Amino acid sequence: MGVFVVGFMVFVLLVLVELVRLGGVGVSGNVVFEVQHKFGVVGNESLSGYVAHDLYRHRRILAGADMPIGGDSSPTSAALYYTKIQLGSPAKEFYVQVDTGSDILWVNCAGCENCPQKSDLGVPLSLYDPDQSLSSGTVTCDQDFCTTTVDPSNNECVLGSQCSYVVRYGDGSSTTGYFVRDNVQLNRISGDRQTSDMQGRIMFGCGSKQSGGLGKSQQALDGILGFGQSNSSLISQLAASKKVKKMFSHCLSGSKGGIFAIGEVVHPEVNSTPILPDMTHFNIELKAIQVGDEFVTLPTKMFNTAAKRGTVIDSGTTLAYFPDPVYNQLMKKVSAAQSEADVQIVDNQFKCYPAHGNVDDVFPIVIFHFANALKLRVFPHQYIFTTQHQYWCIGFMSNGMQPRESNAVLLGDLLLTDRLVTYNMEDQTIGWTDYDCSSSIRVKDEESGMVYEVGAHDISWTRSGAGRSNVSVFVLLVFIIATKLVMYE
């Protein structure tokens, strides 16, 4: 009898493992995981570091992606916010960038060629090994995920071969890998400000080779967690189960952390504008820029064309970038009340003035007018930051004369702070409202209809090897308002 019981228990265990491997185990609930900001408080980091970060990123955003093997996403350079997730069985931790400008979730894998060995962010780097995970599964190029979601145009599939991806970037960097299926472990919201463990099964990329900047230790992490519109993104996979709405929101506090939520936010409410169709990123139509009581003249050939490339809203960019004709007017109007004798050029690029009094009393309010009468009202304290040497520096930059960037406007998180921003991919809209991001929001569970309170979080973190210690950094909670994680056969 004892042998029978043991044998039966082993059989049951094997069945459970196989069910997990095949994606037959459902999970339900609301999910939360922490997201951390890479840089410290604005003004305490090297100013050139902001531009270096943004330029490194924009070379990918604006250059487009060449994906000859598979994939319709374009993973971008390091985003400002990253989170810690767990993959596989037993679960292993990975630090991944949280990015609105990319689509797939991918991590570096065992045997990876030229993957970074360490990170100047001070976080430990890990490699995912599908052979060491009891729940891992292969995604082949003839399976639906690969043929319809990743690369419908790929006619070179050999039956049973891996579902591969190659993405090449404008700066010469590239990432190569293949898709796998495995468990992701998340923290479920079980009530107001309460969480418990949960597990789901998704498709994600297994990076086998990196080149260029992706192989360096600068801003290195284990991978990227994309929140783009492609069907291969995590949020799209969750939405495919009809148990999560295809929308997410972030609320970034200027100094006290914030919130990043996937699902429906019921409080506060936001006003919205349409997302421009057929765009890789989240582009919206810019109608006008107002500085105080005056308006900037927007070049017709850039902003009034049939294509309407529009303005990119991107939390992964730090500053705000404008084409030269717009930038020159904008800076002239913003600085009109300042004496040119006092201007200082910091780091050979930032226009700065001696700090005195209240910055909101010295510089004008800038209002961005978008389609559908949506306004982004930016106060001086939101577009100007103070350096350690007590200078006020304007966070507006020129895109320069690069052909791909000359007609692009990018608004980064410096302008997105202190407001809830919602990306609704179901209705194809983006909206926002001014909000205290150090407080809390209300989110809705799709199955039960229950509404939960989600609060902001903030911690201090020590970055080893980064030249500074005890740096106060932004920390957010990412909430997935779901009732069942999608399972793929």
Shape: globular
First-residue to last-residue Cα separation: 37 Å
Question: Based on helices, strands and strand pairing, what is the structural class?
Answer: alpha+beta
Quantity of strands, as a count: 32
What is the averaged pLDDT score? 74
Low-confidence stretches: 1-29, 39-45, 59-79, 401-406, 458-489
Strand content: 35-45%
Helix content: 10-25%
Helix count from the secondary structure assignment: 9
Radius of gyration: 23 Å
Largest sheet: 16 strands, mixed
Overview of this protein structure:
With 489 residues, the protein is an alpha+beta fold. It has 9 helices and 32 strands. The protein starts with a helix and ends in an 8-residue tail after the last strand. The model is unreliable at 1-29, 39-45, 59-79, 401-406 and 458-489 (pLDDT under 50).
Keywords, separated by commas or semicolons:
16-stranded mixed β-sheet, single chain, five-stranded mixed β-sheet, disordered N terminus, 16% helix
Summarize the structure.
The protein is α+β, with helices and mostly antiparallel strands and about 500 residues long. It has 9 helices and 32 strands. It starts with a helix and ends in an 8-residue tail after the last strand.
